[in-house]
Amino acid sequence: MPSDHPIAPAPPAPGPPSASPRGAAARAQVLAAAAELFTRDGYAATTTRAVAERAGLRQGTLYHHFAAKEDILATLLEGTVAPSLECALRLLALAEPVPGARLWALVRFDTELLMGGLSNLGALYQLPEVRGERFARFRQVRCELAGAYRGLLAPLDRLDEAELRLRAELVLGLVEGSVAVARECAEQEAAVVPEAVADAAVRLASPDGCDRARLAAVRAAGLALGGAGAAD
User: Fold this and answer.
1) pLDDT given at position 133
2) 49-108: pLDDT as tens digits
3) How far apart are CA 225 and CA 98, in angstroms?
4) Long-range CB contact pairs, 86-92, < 8 A, 24+
5) By the 8 A CB rule, do 134 and 74 touch?
6) CA neighbor of 81 nearest in space, from 130, 44, 39
7) What is the pLDDT of residue 209?
């Protein structure tokens, strides 16, 4: 990937992430600014200088936390999948009071996580740069998350492996596309998007349909499981 400043000397290697409140705040400012610029102006068109300026920091401060622009993007993308994988693994270890409740709880959590940011980071998943080695961890975690979705979907319908993989990717597509939907909704409508996506996922996973009474039972059980599945 071309450097933002090809004739400039390489930036110094970043130090370890600062545990101080000031260091953590600076790192968060960089990530917030980068998320905004990457999704608004495009990843390729955004320089580290622009990110630093948007964050209100010197470029040297940015390089203290991130060695390169791709490190910022990798951190942002990993943050959209790692918490959901942790939640999914906890849910997989729990008994399911109502079929579909664990899936509902994960989809709601996953959607809320993606919607929690100010930018639609899911739109960056398809960048050609994300196929590079620096993003191997993000791709691996997302692959494991898809596997966890398959684990939650498998008890709900008799599917062969190919069908199960497709079903899991369809559910993930619902989740990852939810931010774009929420951005087009009025504020009061956007607040209900996570539960609406979870409802849609359960309907998609139900071979015999899901009437209102059953969906209400799934939703109630999913809300109860949500507290157990969320990180402490």
Assistant:
1) 95
2) 999 999 999 999 999 999 999 999 999 999 999 999 999 999 999 999 999 999 999 999
3) 10
4) 86/231, 87/229, 87/230, 87/231, 88/145, 88/148, 88/149, 88/151, 88/152, 88/229, 89/148, 90/228, 90/229, 91/152, 91/225, 91/228, 91/229, 92/148, 92/151, 92/152
5) yes
6) 130
7) 81
Q: If you search the block for the tokens 């109502």, which residue do you land on? A: 98
Residues of the chain falling short of pLDDT 50: 1-16, 231-232
pLDDT at position 189 is 75
Sign (positive or negative) of CA dihedral 97, 100, 101, 102: positive
The CA-based diameter of the chain, rounded to the nearest angstrom, is 65
Please check whether residue 86 is in contact with residue 230, taking contact to mean a CB–CB distance below 8 angstroms: no
Rounded to whole angstroms, the Cα distance separating 51 from 64 reads 14
pLDDT at 12: 40
Amino acid at residue number 20: S
CB 50 within 8 Å of CB 37: yes
For residue 193, give Cα distances in angstroms to 16, 46, 123, 174, 201. Answer: 37, 30, 18, 11, 12
Amino acid at 231: A
Residue spans of alpha helices (H) in the chain: 21-41, 48-55, 59-65, 69-78, 82-92, 101-115, 136-153, 161-176, 178-184, 187-190, 193-205, 212-229
